[in-house]
Design brief:
This protein is α+β, with helices and mostly antiparallel strands. It is built from three helices and five strands; from the N terminus they run E-E-E-H-H-E-H-E. The strands form two sheets. It has a three-stranded antiparallel sheet. The chain has a two-stranded antiparallel ribbon with strand order 1-2. A hairpin with a 5-residue loop joins strand 1 and strand 2. The longest helix has 17 residues.
Length: 106
């Protein structure tokens, strides 16, 4: 990593460039909410298809949704999280399930 040399003004004062600090974008949790109608196997398929989980990981998250009412599927930047929510909601609607998928800032 190269270091920047300070610039010396005519009056002898050294000006040292500051590093700009860019704040990382906020991240959002994508969660699936429990309902009394969506089959557990369908939730596992959704977790595998849209969140890249293997069957074991998907089953663990599905059981958390079932027992605690919600489960985190992943944490993403806003645009990615919104896309995941839309994809899951459309897929559930297409298969006539009321599965709810939401996002909240983490």
């Amino acid at each position: 990593m190269a270091t920047r040399k300070p610039q010396i003004r005519d009056d002898g004062v050294a000006l040292v460039p500051e590093k700009s600090r860019i704040k990382p974008p906020p991240l959002f949790k994508v969660m699936i909410l429990n309902d009394d109608f969506t089959p557990m196997d369908f939730v596992v398929v959704v977790l595998q298809k849209f969140f890249g989980m293997n069957r074991e990981q998907a089953t663990v998250v599905m059981l958390k949704v079932h027992r605690e009412g919600r489960g985190v599927c992943g944490v993403y930047p806003r645009d990615v999280a919104a896309t995941k929510v839309e994809q899951v909601s459309a897929f559930a609607h297409q298969h006539q399930h009321p599965l709810a998928c939401v996002m909240e800032e983490s």
